[in-house]
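Hi all, long-time lurker, first post. I run a small reading group and we've been trying to get comfortable going from sequence to structure in the token notation. Rather than ask abstract questions, I figured I'd post a concrete chain and ask someone more experienced to write out its structure so we can walk through it together at our next meeting. Sequence below, copied exactly:
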Amino acid sequence: MLKLILTIFISTITLTSCFDMFGEPHTTLVKASPNYAKTKKAVLLQNDGDATVDLSFQVSVLDYETKLSGTELGNTFTVDRNHGATGLDSASIEFNWLSDDTLQIDFDQMLRTFIQQKRVNGVAIIYKPR
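-- Answer (accepted) --
Happy to help. Here is the structure in token form:
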């Protein structure tokens, strides 16, 4: 009986760990930049990754009043360290609002890009690798 209880306990702990490992993403706000009219904002989020996904930076263009929950995924631009070819820090991606509906994203060209949208939420996106 003790062996059965121990087996159930260990199985429960193992399954709980696996579900957490593949659960919802956890993102941290790195920086935010509103447009001039304060109707939209660009946010840079860091996704810590998990056992199968590397650390990534994700940019979203959101309505200005949108509150972040910590589980968002980027809707505009997503990059990672390209298998260690470069680092990720707050200077890896910069925002520059050219107008209320045009955002320029400057980024380290060594980053590996997964998502690179040209228009999001009524905003045109211009990319400038450096």
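A couple of things your group might point at:
The two ends are 64 Å apart (CA to CA).
The beta strands are 27-34, 40-47, 56-63, 77-80, 93-99, 102-107, 112-116, 119-120, 123-129.
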